[in-house]
Description:
By secondary structure, this protein is an alpha/beta fold. The protein has helices at 3-10, 23-41, 72-84, 104-118, 133-142, 163-175, 187-190, 196-205, 219-228, 243-249, 263-274, 278-287, 289-296, 302-310, 327-339; strands at 55-59, 89-92, 124-127, 150-154, 181-185, 209-214, 234-237, 253-256. It has an 8-stranded parallel sheet. The radius of gyration is 24 Å and the shape is globular. The chain starts with a helix and ends with a helix.
Amino acid sequence: MMHDEMCFRHFGCKGTNKPANHERKLSFSFAFCSFISTFARNLDVHSMVYNIFKGLGIALVTPFKQDGSVDYDALLRLVDYQLENGADFFCILATTGETPTLTAEEKLRIKNLVVDKVQARVPILMGCGGYNTAAVMNELKNGDFKGIDGVLSVCPYYNKPSQEGLYQHFKAIASATSLPVVLYNVPGRTGVNMKAETTVRLARDCYNIVAIKEASGNLEQVDEIIKNKPRDFDVISGDDALTFPMVSCGAVGVISVIGNALPREFSKMIRLQMRGEYEPARIIHHRFTDLFSLLFVDGNPAGVKAMLHEMGFIENVLRLPLVPTRISTLQRMSEIMKELKI
């Protein structure tokens, strides 16, 4: 319904049969409705985009069969398991999903299967980033994002742009989509760190940049972002081991690797923190300290795939150049999981 029509109905103006002595009132109503209509049409859409990616987000792995093909059945079983055990949102087709090794057809099928399985029960964030700004913009404008609630875009890797280059890159990307954009700062992988002031500048200048997945490992930088950010911009942990201190500082959740295997335990920790129950949350955090380090010692997602294999969910298969975790790491992980009764 048009804004004018809605307004006229509200004021009893549309199709009115009022007598002539009501003309002045009618004229005022039309003038007022015209003002409201113009205001509505020019309403700043910035106020309509906000971060819905809070709590436990799962950085979803891509299961493979022994022949290296995608195990779509195992993928759907994982999604069910995580939904049943506390996942608040999914992050698909990102680093943990070994996305650089997937074909375009595989990526599209994974996206569609997860969207169909989730049925809008929780939000879905999808990776879309790279070091070629124009190519990322083209993907955002022409790609299939049906059923996707937001995009996760990593800092450009390999070409190591300046802070101004990072700002212009993400500003251009944000202009290419109406979807919420979550920035992803992971200097250990990209070779460049996006500083707090650049993140805050983007948060202030781009209405649909709603959050950042911070995986710099620098708690001082995280605190600087939280202290200076706009009220409607959020910080999300990108590091399982630092989720407890980051949420304590004001982060709203995590995009988690370990959550693939232990969604119930990790989501409980976050919910306890959100309620201000820090001591029981700290106990859960410390239970998994050793696992956190083992998960990444042989690269990601080698560690969590080994865990999921031990739990009977998937084959322990990765695509080159990634390889399964070492036997010694796997044995230590198995010992810890038995101690934790997982």
